[in-house]
Write a structure and sequence with these properties.
CATH class of the largest domain: Alpha Beta
Mean pLDDT: 94
Strand order of the largest sheet: 6-7-12-10-11
Number of domains: 3
Number of strands: 20
CATH topology of the largest domain: Uridine Diphospho-n-acetylenolpyruvylglucosamine Reductase, domain 3
Radius of gyration: 20 Å
Helix content: 25-40%
Order of helices and strands: EEHEEEEEHHEEEEHEHHEEHEEHEEEHE
CATH architecture of the largest domain: 2-Layer Sandwich
Low-confidence stretches: none
């Protein structure tokens, strides 16, 4: 059940080759409880892995790595208006999106092709093209690592924020998410307010899109901009889009009239981190590490890539350089979206 000195290369989409001192996978909550009851492992630090898509490993992990392989998707309740869909935390996120589309259940089609597992989705409050998981979230089940209590979290209790939740703050490293339930609509509300989706649908000749059309459009956009982690190591968006005051934005807009931005309130503006990084000249840059090349993707400046053999410290160092440069040029501090270990 417990393996030792295991390479984590197959378990992270950045393709970083570091070792875990102890490693175990689980397919049920019962299995997970058994693993956590090993006395020799109780005091060790623990790292929970789903799809390994939002993770930058910079060193060997001296504790216990737990790979979440809990599968299964089911409708637990439905009315004439909605269905509650429960998925195991180890299910691949896009598999859940496809299930929803096949059953004509709307709400997550804009989140098509986001890498990672279902369990990581609420932890990060994943989002894309005007939709976040909190918009459709109903509840999740999680196991407390120390007490082994099974706890249910409502939407309110998860304290969702921009690319974060209570599991990244107050309850960081205290719970393991085992299942997630979403409330999806039987009469979908199509969300195509983001121009990129409108343009793609137009090029596809679709004027009255359904959720399958929206999903197809999102997939095309993502595939054209983002590298496939199976071919080039990456974790998708590396940085969060920064939020600045109206006053700060207006100063920047005077100097950079084409700055990409999205109003979110009367006082705040969300800026596109990718635009800032691109405009600063980082897009497409390639660097030589000790054992391999790495850099900023040529089609999307928000994505840092490992071309093969680069280390986590190489990638982290590059991200630090970018953060410092963006602060110097725009007086904005970028935040890393990935979890750095």
């Amino acid at each position: 059940m417990i393996k030792h000195n295991i390479s984590l290369l197959p378990y992270n989409t950045f393709g970083i080759d570091v070792n875990a001192k102890h490693f175990a996978s689980f397919k049920t909550v019962k299995d997970l409880k058994q693993i956590l009851q090993f006395k020799s492992l109780k005091a060790l630090p623990k790292l929970i892995l789903g799809g390994g898509s939002n993770l930058l490993l910079t060193k060997d992990f001296e504790g216990l790595v737990l790979k979440n392989d809990i599968e299964g998707i089911e409708i637990t309740k439905q009315t004439s208006d909605y269905a509650l869909v429960r998925a195991g935390a180890g299910v691949e996120w896009h598999q859940l999106v496809l299930y929803a589309i096949e059953n004509n259940l709307g709400g997550i089609e804009n989140l098509s092709l986001i890498p990672g597992s279902v369990g990581a989705a609420p932890m990060q409050n994943i989002g894309a093209y005007g939709v976040e998981i909190k918009d459709v979230f109903f509840e999740l089940e999680a196991l407390h690592i120390d007490s082994l209590d099974e706890v249910r979290f409502t939407k309110k209790r998860c304290q969702f924020g921009y690319r974060e939740s209570i599991f990244k703050r107050q309850f960081k490293d205290q719970f393991i998410i085992t299942s997630v339930t979403l409330k999806l609509l039987k009469k979908p509300k199509i969300q195509i307010s983001y121009g990129a989706i409108k343009d793609e649908l137009k090029s596809m000749g679709i004027l009255q899109p359904n959720i399958k059309n929206v999903s197809d459009a999102v997939i095309k956009i993502r595939q054209s901009k983002l590298p496939d982690p199976k071919k080039i190591g990456n974790s998708g968006s590396f940085f969060k889009n920064p939020i600045v005051s109206i006053e700060h934005f207006k100063k920047l807009q005077t100097k950079y009239p084409k700055i990409a931005h999205y109003p979110i309130s009367d006082k705040d503006i969300k800026l596109a981190a990718g635009w800032l990084i691109d405009n600063a000249g980082w897009k497409g840059k390639v660097f030589e590490g000790t054992n391999g090349k790495y850099g900023v993707h040529k089609n999307q400046a928000l994505v840092l890539v490992n071309y093969g053999g680069a280390s986590g410290t190489d990638i982290f160092g590059l991200s630090t350089q970018i953060i410092n440069d963006i602060l110097d040029k725009y007086n904005i501090t970028l935040e890393r979206e990935v979890n750095v270990i």
